[in-house]
Amino acid sequence: MTMKQLTDAGQKSEQDELKCAVLPSWIAGLPPTIFIPKVHPMRKEITQDVNVFFLAHWPFPNEKARKKFVDSDFCYGLCATWPESVDDRMNHACRLFTLLFLIDDLLDDMSLEGGRAFNNGLLSLMQGHRMPIRENPIESMSYDIWNELHASDPVLSMNILVALGPFMESQTDALRAQENIGLKALITATGLYCTRLAIPTTDLAVTEPLDDIYMKHLIYGNDAWSYDKELKTAQETCGTALDVQAFSSISTLMNASGMTARSAKRVLVFLQREMELLFGEVAEAVLTRRDTPELQSYIKMLEFQMSGSELWATETLRYYDYTAY
Fold first, then answer.
1. Which terminus of the chain is less hemmed in, N or C, by CB atoms within 10 Å?
2. What is the pLDDT of residues 263-311, one digit of tens each?
3. Phi-psi region of 31 (alpha: psi -120 to 50; beta: other; left: phi over 0)
4. Which of 46, 56, 47, 48 is nearest to 140 (CA)?
5. In angstroms, rounded to a whole number, what is the distance separating the alpha carbons of residues 99 and 138?
6. Residue 116 exposure: Cα atoms within 13 Å on the Cβ side
7. List of domains in the chain
8. What is the pTM of this model?
9. What is the largest CA-CA distance in the chain?
10. pLDDT single digits (tens) 48-64
């Protein structure tokens, strides 16, 4: 994603331009994505609403943590991921995924057993097995966020709930997290909910090769952009980089070729570009096999998911200004 592309698209605020001015040096000269990003037109209003909600209710430990939350700008990435979402559904998705982001941060400081019990407790709320303890802000928020989402579409929302179980289980299992168990299903279900797309299971099965390409694109980008942050966290909490290196494609490239982490991150971006070209070829084959307006919309949704994820990664202070926290 080049600065010129983003500026020409009219999507950059003065603050965003300032962020781009301090992007890490390792991205210099890399080819931009072939996809044209798009951001939900209600992005600012949704971001403000979601930030106010979490700042009022989430138990941030201090002002530094509150600032980190705002600077991470989760809603920006989500509004770029599903830019054609129905307005209220975009708000629901932003609340849900912001909740998941914050829960993921909490799990970093828990044991695997403690994290598993924590996630299971939240899942039991969303699945309707028990009522929340209202004095517990996280339980209360989780319950209310899910019920607002479910009330807006009892059918499509259930696919999100089905995917949440495996995804939250994988958060406390290193191997399952590495294999991204549940993540693809969760993103797909939320995207269909946001865009109000009802696609038969048999039709979705035709797009599985495209889903796999999308996930590779997402993983390559996430590994490249989050590596420095995760490396710093591992060194601070464990005194070693082994945890992040064990399950990162960065370390795989480093070990296989002897290249530096900087070079490995750049290679991952080139791999993303190859995935984009492959996506176009496979999309043509998919539509030759089964062409419907809904599948065309779904394929476009996947393109936005790729360009949106990368757009947020290049903007969020969560990844490239992690030293401030």
1. C
2. 999 999 999 999 999 999 999 999 999 999 999 999 999 999 999 988 8
3. beta
4. 56
5. 9
6. 11
7. 31-324 (1.10.600.10)
8. 0.84
9. 55
10. 999 999 999 999 999 99
| The total number of residues written for the chain in this structure | 325
Structure-token match 């930030």, residue found = 51
Three-state SS sequence of the chain: CCHHHHHHCCCCCHHHHHHHHCCCHHHCCCCCCCCCCCCCCCHHHHHHHHHHHHHHHCCCCCHHHHHHHHHHCHHHHHHHHCCCCCHHHHHHHHHHHHHHHHHHHHHCCCCHHHHHHHHHHHHHHHCCCCCCCCCCHHHHHHHHHHHHHHHHCCCHHHHHHHHHHHHHHHCCCHHHHHCCCCHHHHHHHHHHHHHCCCCCHHHHHHCHHHHHHHHHHHHHHHHHHHHHHHHHHHHHHHCCCHHHHHCCHHHHHHHHHCCCHHHHHHHHHHHHHHHHHHHHHHHHHHHHHCCCHHHHHHHHHHHHHHHHHHHHHCCCHHHHCHHHC
| Placement of tokens 């002897």 in the chain | 258
